[in-house]
Design a protein that fits this description.
Belongs to the PNT beta subunit family. This protein is an alpha/beta fold. It has 18 helices and 6 strands.
Length: 462
């Protein structure tokens, strides 16, 4: 066991280094590789020394590892970068489900024996509760992201009261499982069922605008479930890795909430994007100025500094390579080009960073909210590609707006703003964007990839 614990310590160090490097787009790939090596070391250490009194069927272990590796590799190779949020949601669910299954197996194995201590039962119950909630919540999130379920908040009368009742019932059943009384097994099944239902009812009210927050929160849940399972198995590696994932996911959730200037409770219970639809429809129609790609090209030709603002529309159109080509062409014409990345743009944390990294956009050009906003003061042209709420000036002054107080990208301070959207439909928050009616804003309607491809040709012809 001494060598095993040493291996877990090494794995933990690699996990920490990996997470540290994941905090920057420039080192994220190396961070992912380092963390993967750490996980491989932890897996090998566990298989070689599973613990006293535990005998493994190495054939079954090998089969499981091979099947899991094939599935993981297939996902990684075949899933497009635009589908990365769905992949993250599925992996969160798999993590929670695995923790719940392992904890359940341990409960059935130790039930009624002298090894079934109160501490063991409590940790099993916690792991099953959080893991099952994560599983169903993650698959609801996947359904919303994939379009199987409406991306708008789904609410019904008495929803929060029902959630409160479910939570209270789970506490009562969990305590009953731990203290015994003859109905422990039935109570255990009750925890499984109610946790699954609660995962659904907590996630369906989440709208598209809040998906980055809920994805990072579910990631944190999966880590907590894994850590609880580590206590069930007395596996130091699992405890350490689960705690790291849980803590980092919670920190990321907090960062996402700050990026929207909202509390976590408001994200979970606020159902932003639902009630605002009727308000948006009754607002005075915004008068916009449309432009062609030829006109946009002439404006860009005269510019010295250009800032590109990617949004979810860029991801939907899979236009990351097209925008890189346009940016490279502008640089060859002597323009300074930057990318402004809002922390909650897209459907998951770092969504835009992942897309732009896939197109090999230079890391030096990627600027976050705090660094890039001063750059707009002397920016000649800002190109907004499918972003909406994160560039809406209403967040600064309209106290009735659902996005009031949310830090935004100050694109309106640029000399000219070129906005590309398919239609004038509102963003996830369900409100109109007053930026579109500003005197310095030009709207170029259409698919982002098609628009950028045409814009590239028009720039080449100048």
């Amino acid at each position: 066991m001494g060598y095993t614990n040493l291996a877990y310590v090494i794995a933990a160090i690699l996990f920490i280094l990996g997470i540290k490097k994941l905090s920057s787009p420039k080192t994220a790939r190396n961070g992912n590789s380092i963390a993967s090596i750490g996980m491989l070391i932890a897996i090998i250490a566990t298989v070689v020394s599973p613990g006293s009194g535990i005998e493994l069927d190495f054939k079954l272990v090998a089969i499981g590892m091979i099947i899991g590796s094939i599935i993981g590799a297939t996902f990684a190779i075949r899933i497009q970068m635009t589908q990365m949020p769905q992949m993250v949601a599925i992996f969160n669910g798999f993590g929670g489900g695995a923790s719940a299954l392992v904890a359940s197996a341990e409960y059935f194995n130790k039930f009624g024996t002298v090894d079934q201590t109160t501490f063991l039962t409590a940790t099993i119950t916690l792991s099953v509760f959080i893991g099952t909630l994560t599983l169903t919540g993650s698959f609801i999130a996947f359904g919303k992201l994939q379009g199987f379920i409406s991306g708008k908040p789904i609410v019904f009368p008495g929803q929060q009261a029902i959630n409160g009742f479910l939570a209270l019932a789970l506490v009562v059943m969990g305590v009953s499982v731990c203290i015994g009384g003859g109905q422990e097994m039935n109570m255990f099944y009750g925890v499984l069922i109610l946790a699954a239902i609660l995962g659904i009812t907590l996630t369906i009210p989440i709208g598209g605008a809040d998906m980055p927050v809920i994805i990072s929160l579910l990631n944190s849940y999966s880590g907590v479930a894994a850590a609880a399972t580590g206590f069930v198995l007395m596996n130091n590696g699992l405890i350490i890795s689960g705690a790291l994932v849980g803590a980092s996911g919670l920190i990321l959730t907090n960062i996402m909430c700050k990026g929207m200037n909202r509390s976590l409770a408001n994200v979970i219970f606020g159902a932003v994007g639902l009630e605002q639809e009727s308000v948006a429809g009754s607002d005075k129609q915004i008068k916009v100025k449309s432009a062609t790609t030829e006109e946009a090209a002439m404006i860009l030709e005269a510019a010295d500094k250009v800032i590109i603002v990617p949004g979810y529309g860029l991801a939907v159109a899979q236009a990351q390579h097209a925008v890189r080509e346009v940016a490279d062409l502008l640089e060859s014409m002597g323009k300074k080009v930057l990318y402004a990345v809002h922390p909650v743009a897209g459907r998951m944390p770092g969504h835009m960073n992942v897309l732009l990294a896939e197109a090999n956009v230079p890391y030096e050009q990627l600027k976050d909210l705090g660094d890039v906003n001063p750059e707009f003061d002397d920016c000649d042209v800002a190109i907004v590609l499918g972003a909406n709420d994160v560039v809406n000036p209403a967040s600064r002054h309209d106290t009735s707006s659902p996005i009031y107080g949310m830090p935004i990208l100050d694109v309106d301070k640029s000399r000219t703003v070129i906005v590309n959207k398919r239609t004038m439909n509102p963003g996830f928050a369900g409100i109109q964007n007053e930026l579109f009616g500003f005197d310095n804003t030009l709207m170029v309607f259409g698919d982002a990839k098609e628009m950028l491809t045409t814009l590239y040709k028009d720039l080449k012809e100048l």
